[in-house]
Amino acid sequence: METLLKEWYDKIKEAQSVENLEEIRICVFGKKGVLAAEFAKMKTAPNEEKSKIAQDLNTHKSSLMNELSARRITLQTIELQKSMKAEAIDVSMFSVGSEAGALHPVMETMDRIVEYFSAMNFAVKTGNMVEDDFNNFEALNLPKYHPARDMQDTFYFKDEMLLRTHTSPVQIRTMMSQKPPIRMIAPGAVFRRDYDITHTPMFHQVEGLLVDEEGKVSFANLKYIMEDFLKYMFGDVEVRFRPSFFPFTEPSSEVDISCVFCKGEGCRVCSKTGWIEILGCGIVDSNVFKAVKYENVSGYAFGLGVERMAMLIHHIGDLRSLFEGDIKLLEQFQ
Hints:
The protein has two domains: 2-87; 105-333, 2-Layer Sandwich (BirA Bifunctional Protein, domain 2). 41% of the residues lie in helices and 20% in strands. The protein has helices at residues 2-14, 18-29, 34-40, 47-87, 105-119, 133-136, 168-177, 219-234, 286-291, 306-314, 327-330, and strands spanning 123-124, 130-132, 161-163, 182-191, 202-213, 239-246, 249-258, 275-284, 297-305.
């Protein structure tokens, strides 16, 4: 019996496939297998030897099963490795059918804006899209029933909660949580009830704020950084400042650049004026500083629409097309 079972141990170790191993299992453990035949011989063995024979056979049975399981795992691992090697795909190989992705033009423009101001040591701050009336309007010198609120009609919830109409609340919350000096920009999505060729209900803004001790910040500082920023974004353009009104800045200014389409000669895009309005800015109104309990400080602020800049940079005619997911438009930016 010892010699016979040793042969099967050797056959298990030498098995070259799972199928071959299954044939061996049947020959050893099947109803007509080797072990079944050995157990059958116990009928003719002397009674005093039956216990010893049964113990030896059960020991060999357990050992053979362990050998069989270990060899099966080894063979399955080998077969899996062969299969993986045969089916392997070199993902680094060039595929004619693949297409390169690209950032959406709005996000690409946003990244360029953030890149510039980060290089100028402005911190990037983000905030809530759902705001309360105080942070969105009251603290920005826009009390209830102020006519300037009509320009920022938005989507309201109950209890004076609303979708923010600009990213200015981020500036308010920043000023209420830390002391000057502050040098920050607030990029993000904002919401207003507008929908036409140059407006959508949701769009993106980048607003900036710089606050320092009284007398350290002037309109000249604001004018310099606005001119430098616009030349960074649009190249060799002329920049002009026009007096304007914003409740949260005084004095306030609209900033125009020479038309990037006609180079200032006058066209349909610039309404024959040679200029395109690009952003608003000004010196922070003292009432804003009172709302956040700042004293003896001065600062400037500015705000711009990212979609408007993307339209001008990429010569896109309709703002709404940026949100329609038109592949024919977007694939031009790959």
